[in-house]
Design a protein that fits this description.
Number of strands of chain A: 0
Order of helices and strands of chain B: EEHHHHHH
Number of helices of chain B: 6
Shape of chain B: globular
Radius of gyration of chain A: 21 Å
Helix content of chain B: 55-70%
Distance between the termini of chain A: 31 Å
Strand order of the largest sheet of chain B: 1-2
Largest sheet of chain B: 2 strands, antiparallel
Helix content of chain A: over 70%
Number of helices of chain A: 2
Distance between the termini of chain B: 44 Å
Oligomer: heterodimer
Structural class of chain A: mainly alpha
Structural class of chain B: mainly alpha
Radius of gyration of chain B: 20 Å
């Protein structure tokens, strides 16, 4: 099914989701690493590795989001160009 | 009360403690069930009254959330779940709009407790992976190592971040909103809380839409051809 009338809701959802997902990824990395440190007595090495992985996961999510938005905007531009060309004829 | 959890247990069902929030959830489920029963007990080809309202709600939620999912058969399969999410969450959010509800145990909105939002997010989590496996079989596991196996830890963190962000967002918004209204009711009992409660009507609906649309988009991502 193609999206029809909920573009505003999609944009709102994407905006609200990005912030919390990025924060959640970083928190999972940090707290997951801390939990492993406590379990295996590794100081804070795994917490730092977890934090870095969380930040990397957050960057990946941002990258994917950016690509999706670029793709969508290109499609919209192509569709507008086609409409304009048909209008000129 | 710690982070939205009431410690008052009403009774036990075997080993399971039942508190006010569980009873509130049962009441919401019972009211929704009763409304559905009353609206659908004598179905007619040309709907009227309760059947009309129910059909409108069902068709609106099916269309609104189903459109997010590209594959029509997947949309049909998951539309009932998504509609149920939306209706349950919006009624739960609005159950806190009774003045002073946050201070009355029986009227606390269930979504202001993170046990409830975790349960909802876990349902989404399992539905997403069910959609992935049912559409792609064992090939679905491949998306955990895409674009290459070095991305496995990042993809795993992302998979857990989705339900965690769903949980925290819904719980945080509704719990925070309830607390603000409760304190404003205590400090300025008349005009100020009613203004904020007006805003809560909007926020409650937005949170229900956001939770359901995100669940739909995660299901779509898991079931789409890209995996």
């Amino acid at each position: 099914m193609a999206p029809k009338n909920q573009n505003w809701a999609r944009s709102l959802t994407a905006a609200l989701n990005l912030g919390t997902s990025v924060a959640a990824a970083v928190a999972i990395g940090w707290f997951g690493g801390q939990w492993l440190d406590n379990r295996y007595g590794t100081g804070n090495k795994l917490a730092i590795i977890g934090l870095l992985l969380g930040v990397a996961a957050a960057m990946k999510m941002l990258w994917q989001r950016m690509n999706q938005d670029t793709e969508r905007s290109n499609l919209r531009k192509e569709s507008n160009d086609t409409k304009n060309k048909l209008g000129d004829k | 009360m710690i982070f939205g959890m009431w410690d008052g247990v009403l009774f036990h069902l075997g080993p399971l403690p039942v508190d006010h929030l569980v009873v509130t959830e049962w009441a919401i489920i019972a009211v929704l069930g009763l409304l559905c029963y009353l609206g659908s007990r004598s179905m007619k080809t040309i709907p009227a009254g309760g059947q009309n309202i129910l059909e409108y709600v069902v068709s609106f939620t099916y269309d609104f959330f189903g459109q997010v999912i590209d594959e029509e058969h997947v949309a049909k399969k998951f539309a009932p779940l998504l509609s149920t999410f939306f209706i349950f969450i919006i009624i739960s959010n609005y159950s806190g709009l009774i003045p002073g509800a946050a201070h009355i145990e029986g009227f606390q909105p269930p979504t202001s407790n993170w046990n409830v939002t975790v349960a909802l997010a876990l349902t989404t989590f399992f539905a997403v992976h069910y959609a992935g496996f049912s559409e792609h079989g064992a090939h679905y596991l491949g998306h955990f190592i895409a674009p290459n196996p070095a991305f496995l830890p990042l993809n795993l963190i992302e998979e857990v971040a989705h339900p965690l962000s769903l949980t925290v967002r819904l719980f945080g918004n509704i719990f925070g909103e309830e607390m603000i209204i409760a304190y404003l009711l205590f400090m300025a009992p008349f005009v100020v809380p009613s203004l904020l409660m007006g805003l809560s009507v909007l926020l409650g609906a937005i949170q229900a839409i956001v939770f359901t649309l995100l669940s739909a988009s995660y299901i779509n991502a898991a079931s789409s051809a890209g995996h």
